[in-house]
Specification:
Strand order of the largest sheet: 3-2-6-5-4-1-7
Strand content: 25-35%
Mean pLDDT: 78
CATH superfamily of one domain: Immunoglobulins
Oligomer: single chain
CATH topology of one domain: Immunoglobulin-like
Helix content: 10-25%
Order of helices and strands: HHEEEEEEEEEEEEEEE
CATH architecture of one domain: Sandwich
Radius of gyration: 63 Å
Structural class: alpha+beta
Shape: rod-shaped
Distance between the termini: 163 Å
Length: about 260
């Protein structure tokens, strides 16, 4: 623009200079001619100014608006920890499966009051309630249907265990007798009794307070070959005793006295 104005003034100056060289004599005529010339130069200058080509104004470049990422039409969910999926929102509901890390499931509903997502398990038609703590949701969930909380399952009736009776000690034997043969000092004898108990583990046999033997349950006799430490002495009676026993204890002892004279 400055260059064009300089050129315009140069043209005006040259026109004035050339005109001055051709001015006739006489003051009034010269003045009039100079005035006419000035008007002419001014008009030409305005004409050149109006016809000058305006400077080029750069057209701003169009900046494309980045396109928005499309929102998935079907909302999905993934988990950061393997998570159980049940028939309702809580441990009291039956377990139907789970969503593992790395898997993605379709969300088919929600329950806003509990925060649970209702999903379809991958590669399955099973619909279940997913614990939301470890869930990451993608997609628009605003239009998902609200699922009501299902009734709490009725717990399976647990049978009351039958009480096990506390074991008791067996009952004492009855009608204890001793049959003894006494041909010499090495005599022997046989103890006999009635078993009055049905819960004994066995019987203990004593002679003069010393344990001779322990025999199996349901026994009703025992052959005594000799007294503790040797044969039964002649002329001295011995005391024989029988008691029943089990894990709970022992029955009272029943005794009989017998000897060879």
């Amino acid at each position: 623009m400055i260059k064009k104005k300089s050129t315009l003034f140069l043209y005006v100056f040259l026109i004035i200079a050339l005109s001055a060289c051709n001015l006739p004599s006489g003051e009034a005529t010269a003045t009039e001619e100079v005035s006419d010339l000035a008007l002419t130069v001014t008009a030409q200058a305005l004409l050149l100014q109006n016809s000058a080509t305006p400077e080029f104004t750069a057209t701003p470049q169009f900046t494309a608006t980045p396109g928005a990422s499309p929102t998935p039409s079907v909302p999905t969910v993934s988990v950061s920890t393997n998570t159980n999926c049940r028939t309702g929102p809580g441990l009291v509901y039956d377990l139907l499966g789970g969503l593992n890390v790395g898997q993605t499931a379709e969300i088919v509903g929600k329950n806003s009051s509990t925060g649970y997502w209702i999903i379809k398990l991958p590669n399955s038609a099973t619909i279940c309630w997913l614990f939301p703590q470890y869930a990451t949701v993608s997609g628009n969930t605003a239009n998902l249907p609200e699922y009501p909380v299902p009734p709490t399952p009725t717990p399976t009736k647990t049978s009351t265990p039958t009480s096990t009776p506390t074991p008791s000690a067996p009952v004492a034997v009855d009608n204890l007798t001793m049959t003894m043969a006494c041909p010499n000092a090495n005599h022997s004898g046989t103890l006999n009794w009635n078993d009055k108990s049905n819960n004994e583990d066995g019987f203990n046999i004593y002679a003069n307070g010393v344990l001779l033997a322990s025999i199996p349950a349901n026994s009703t006799s025992y052959n005594v070959a000799a007294a503790p430490g040797g044969p039964f002495p002649l002329g001295i009676a011995s005391i024989f005793e029988v008691e029943a026993f089990n894990a709970a204890g022992k029955s009272p002892k029943k005794s009989v006295t017998k000897g060879c004279v």
